[in-house]
Amino acid sequence: MDPFADIQTNPIVGNTSSNINTASSSSTTSGASGTMNNNNSTPSRYENQKRRDWNTFGQYLKNHRPPLTLSRCSGAHVLEFLRYLDQFGKTKVHTPICPFFGHPNPPAPCPCPLRQAWGSLDALIGRLRAAYEENGGRPEANPFGARAVRLYLREVRDLQSKARGISYEKKKRKRPQASSSSAPPSSSGEA
């Protein structure tokens, strides 16, 4: 049985027409604490997306065979969830044997698979990592922060970078100017 039978469209984008019952299990309830818009009654877009992602992951746990509780969920289950989400992807990832491997804008169609973009997966994991802790999970037991998940995301980023000919470079932070807290240059006092 498909553990994701209730999910019909891309759960990352948020346009799901799924049969997710948010009150069906304690693992799918969402803590609405977080950033609010200026009118203090509507959750922000980020909070709404985080809640949808959390509910989708809760549905995954409920439909998993055997069913999983949040406390038994591991990094391996998160990886299984991410691999499942690939079927909803819209990013063409060329295989090494494809003539367009490494070309960001191929001139013709090819049979290479559509996958979730690395940036979407990275953002999803960030939201789920935050939601896990907001819903009572201990930070040290957070399966979304597991080493295996971080390595998987790095592998996806590198693979997509090579396949699409796009480099994913970390945004460089502007470093603050060095303060004058270090000893000033000494002068010999001779004039």
TrEMBL record:
GO CC annotation terms, alphabetical: nucleus
Coiled coil: none
Keyword Membrane in record: no
Transmembrane segments: none
Region (Disordered): 1-51, 163-191
Biased composition (Low complexity): 14-42, 178-191
GO molecular function: DNA binding
Entry annotated with the keyword ATP-binding: no
Superkingdom of origin: Eukaryota
Location, primary (coarse class): nucleus
Domain spans labelled ALOG: 45-172
Keyword vocabulary terms for this entry: Developmental protein, DNA-binding, Nucleus, Transcription, Transcription regulation
Gene Ontology BP terms: mRNA transcription; response to light stimulus
Localization in the cell: Nucleus
Record PANTHER family: PROTEIN G1-LIKE2 (PTHR31165), PROTEIN LIGHT-DEPENDENT SHORT HYPOCOTYLS 3 (PTHR31165:SF95)
Family: Belongs to the plant homeotic and developmental regulators ALOG protein family.
Full protein name: OLC1v1007014C1
Organism expressing this protein natively: Oldenlandia corymbosa var. corymbosa
